[in-house]
Every structure is written in C-alpha cells, then in structure tokens.
TrEMBL record:
Sequence similarity: Belongs to the SbcD family.
InterPro entries, per database record: Calcineurin-like_PHP, DNA_Repair-Maintenance_Comp, Metallo-depent_PP-like, Mre11_N, UCP033093_metalloPase
Domain of life: Bacteria
Lineage, opening ranks: Bacteria, Bacillati, Actinomycetota, Actinomycetes, Mycobacteriales
Entry protein name: Nuclease SbcCD subunit D
Amino acid sequence: MRFLHTADWQLGMTRHFLAGDAQPRYSAARRDAVAGLGALAAETGAEFVVVAGDVFEDNQLAPQVISQSLEAMRAIGIRVYLLPGNHDPLDASSVYTSALFRAECPANVVVLDRAGVHEVRPGIEIVAAPWRSKSPTTDLVADVLNDLPATAVARVLVAHGGVDVLDPDKNKPSLIRLANLDRALADGAIHYVALGDKHSLTKIGDSGRVWYSGSPEVTNYDDVEANPGHVLVVDIDEDDPQRRVTVEPKRVGRWRFVTLSREVDNNREIADLDVNLDQMSDKERTVVRLALTGSLTVTDRAALDALLDKYSRLFAWLGIWESHSSLAVIPADGEFNDLGIGGFAASAIDELVETARAGGDESAEDAQAALALLLRLTDRGAA
C-alpha cells in the first residue's frame, strides 16, 4: 500500500514583505504544489493522500481562496484526507463547516473531523487526531491511542503538533509524546505516523515510522526551515506481518527563502556579493534576506545601495535584515574633492562629511544617506 504524506499547506498564507505581483505568484505556487500531487501520485502509484493538519492558513478566508484551494484538491484526482490543525481547527468558525466549503468540496476530499479510526478501504485504516481549538489542553494523540488494540490491517496515524523530543517546553499539555508513539508502533496498533506542524522534513525517533513531511512549499527562511518543499511517498507492505515501512522524500517546492550573511568592508567584498546574487537561479521565486556588516566609505555605500536596488527588481524580494546588520559609513579623506562643486555647496558638503563622521545618531545617518545619494547622482556609486 502506497500513499502520499503531506502537511502544512496553509493555503491563503500571505508574506507581508512580498509586494507587487510576488504575493499572487507565491499563492499560486502553493496551490500548484497541491494540484501537482496528482501527477506525483500517478507517477508513484499512490492510492491516497493524507494532509496532517493546517490545510488552510486560517478559518477566516476570502471565498476566492477557499474555492481555488478546493479546485486544486480536485485536480489531485485521488482521495485526499484533510486533518484540521492549529491554524484551521474544528471550532465554531471552522472553514470545514462553512456553507461554501460544504457546497464546493470535491467528492475526492474527506475531512477527518472525528477522532479515531476511519476506514480507507478494506485492509487500510487512518487513525485521526483533529484539533478542535487552537490550544488543546491534552495530548490529542494519546487520547486516540488510548486502548487502541493491535490490528491486522495497515493503520496510519495522522496527527498535528509538536513532539516532546523537539520542544523545549516539556510541560506543554498538547505535546505529542514520542514514547506513546513508539509503544503503539511496537504493539502493532499503528504502523506509520504522519505528522504535521514542523515545516521542515524531519524524521522523529529511531523507528523510521514517524515523520514530519514539512510544507510542500517554503514558508520561512532557511535558518528556521532547513529542509522544506517535500512530500513523502510512504509504502506499507501489507504482506509483511510486521508491516514493513519505507519512506521516500520527493521535492516539489519551487520557491526559496534564503538568508545571506556577508562582510562588506570594501568595494571588493561588494563585488563578491554582486557575483553571489547574480549566480543565484530562479530569482523570481527567491526571497533573499541580507545580514550585512562592515565599515564603508560613502562611495562604497552608494555602490552597495545601487546593487541592492538592482537586485530588488530581479528577486521576488531582497532586503537587509536590519536586526542582524551593522553598516557604518565613514567618509574617506578627499572623497568629495573631485566633484567639481565649490562655494556654498562645497561648504554644505564639508558640513555633511563632518556630521557623518561623528556617527551615533539619526543626524549622522541622514548625513551619510545624503552623501551616498549625492555620489549616486554623480554616477560615482553606480553598480
């Protein structure tokens, strides 16, 4: 028996920094990743898909988002089982009980809205642990595994949430306890655990049967999500008494959220950054956050600003990570002597240089910015 394990689609997600057409393209990519599961299922021979929570970004969504999302699920073509998670719990305002969802839900889509065992077909069962609020007061997985007997059928647990071995807050009541999972696996009550909540592909424990699939399309920077953009192809051998499991990750994501940390103390290091950015592929689907440190002349800062302006037009988004950057601008001796400016204007430039060198306050930053702009206007800071 073969199926696809995915999670954390969070359809309807917006990223505040994406402007212009980047946000619609990002949203479309998330829907395309969903619809594309149909081709992956056909290629691998998967019978069905389980989505381990957070199908939607929120319960309050624009009607267009719901309709387009359901159409993407319809395109998969095989049965798709949706588990409500912490973003889209089965509370009073649940998207799953809305009139629009009920009216347009495709025949191949099933909401796992009841805790416990669901039959997929004779010989295959899903054990579901849906969220009914954003803050459960118990371990929902422990609740459904309690007194669950061993079975002769292949059984998949579909759950959402943090596992205690990864979470620093060991006292959180909703944490999934790995010991409970391992016990249920050893007893034959379940044979595979499909988890959602962690957006990066992650194997949990030593059994090889407990996995986070991660989100099929990136949602955060690479220092937070080390390995997003996957779907898991899971095989459970129905002829093996031990129900042997094999798991194969398949990359489906196309976007990247990248953090680059660089020293930029001179024009050579700025040129190196230019080369790095130029060589990055798929710029229209790449978000770049720059952590930059260094001390620059005004000329070099103008060149850096010109570089950033150029690449901000090419990437889906590119900008400086202010909280992790420290750029000092110190005018060099004679840096403004050859501009051909005299009289009152030259005196004003001298005053700006003095203020910029003083540093330490907003007036110095304003002076540095004004000098950099002056150099750019005179083509001295051209990238």
